[in-house]
């Protein structure tokens, strides 16, 4: 190796050129994406205006896209399938104000969003995909698991409308709650016997997916963190730090139903972390007990007038019945 490659100034030059190149490349990709979205929006506008100007009878609406697909494909090649043209048409109808389009989302993101007929739900996934920089794959999973409806079940009508408008903004421990959490990615068969250790091991193996299900802001600290009091050892299943709320988040996993003593144990953990682990910059820690079953009345009485930031929620190892989730959220909105 010659002296030049060892020089710190030379290394700095290489890094500066590399950073400039990556920034330019990202800007080019972003510019191409924005131009593509604008073009598809304009095409959708042309189609809708042609239909609305009375130049086409309603019964021939489908035939218009068939003809357009054939003629445009002959002249310009791929990209003009009938389904793609239909998405462009919906693109304009669902987003009539072009300024509401996001350059952070690709056309593939928008195709996923356009398949959502409910406006509130679509608005939520649009905003959340922006906020959390979801890949298309992540967006698909969150739709499939009914994330919007699972979060909405813990809110009232006004909060649901706000959720759809702004996405999930984490401001307190209550904003962390999903009902239920869905762990289908763990691959644990629903009816097979497994214990809490099996569940924890599966989560660690699929930590990236677990963090996605928890939501933005969780940083993994460790598992089985030991607390020793009077020569007796206790172990917190999973410990995270929430970068937005500036606090530790302790998670305990329970098979079956959550019991009163589980709540008492989590309170002990929270007290210990607040007194022994927190520094002056940390806020009060949050505890989350995740169980297969939850007795709402018992939890309510156990937490009555309690200042602990302790949440109890359910998890399931299979995809939820989305139609049931939609029905329950609709009941809240109709009240």
SSE layout:
Layout: H1 3-6, H2 8-52, H3 61-76, H4 82-94, H5 107-114, H6 119-131, H7 136-144, H8 147-152, H9 157-166, E1 181-182, H10 196-205, H11 207-214, E2 218-229, E3 232-242, E4 247-257, H12 260-277, E5 286-293, H13 296-302, E6 310-316, H14 322-334
Parallel strand pairs: 1-6, 4-5, 5-6
Antiparallel strand pairs: 2-3, 3-4
Helix pairs in contact: 2-4, 3-4, 5-6, 6-9, 10-11
Protein model, in words:
With 335 residues, the chain is α/β, with parallel strands linked by helices. It has three domains: 3-111, no CATH class; 116-175 and 320-335, no CATH class; 181-317, 3-Layer(aba) Sandwich (Trna Endonuclease, Chain: A, domain 1), CATH 3.40.1350. The protein has helices at residues 3-6, 8-52, 61-76, 82-94, 107-114, 119-131, 136-144, 147-152, 157-166, 196-205, 207-214, 260-277, 296-302, 322-334; strands spanning 181-182, 218-229, 232-242, 247-257, 286-293, 310-316. The chain has a six-stranded mixed sheet, with helices on both faces. Helix 3 (61-76) crosses helix 4 and helix 10 packs across helix 11. The longest helix has 45 residues, at 8-52. The radius of gyration is 25 Å and the shape is globular. The model has no long low-confidence stretch (mean pLDDT 90).
Structure summary:
With 335 residues, the protein is of the alpha/beta class.
Features:
3 domains; 6-stranded mixed sheet; 14 helices; alpha/beta; 335 residues; Trna Endonuclease, Chain: A, domain 1; 6 strands
Helical segment count: 14
Distance between the termini: 74 Å
Helix content: 40-55%
Question: Which CATH class of the largest domain is shown?
Answer: Alpha Beta
Beta-strand percentage range: 15-25%
Query: Which structural class do you get from the secondary structure elements?
Result: alpha/beta
State the shape.
globular
DSSP summary, beta strand count: 6
Question: What's the arrangement of strands in the largest beta sheet?
Answer: 1-6-5-4-3-2
pLDDT averaged over residues:
90
Rg over alpha carbons:
25 Å
The number of domains is 3
Low-confidence stretches: none
Largest sheet, described in full? 6 strands, mixed
- Provide the succession of SSEs: HHHHHHHHHEHHEEEHEHEH
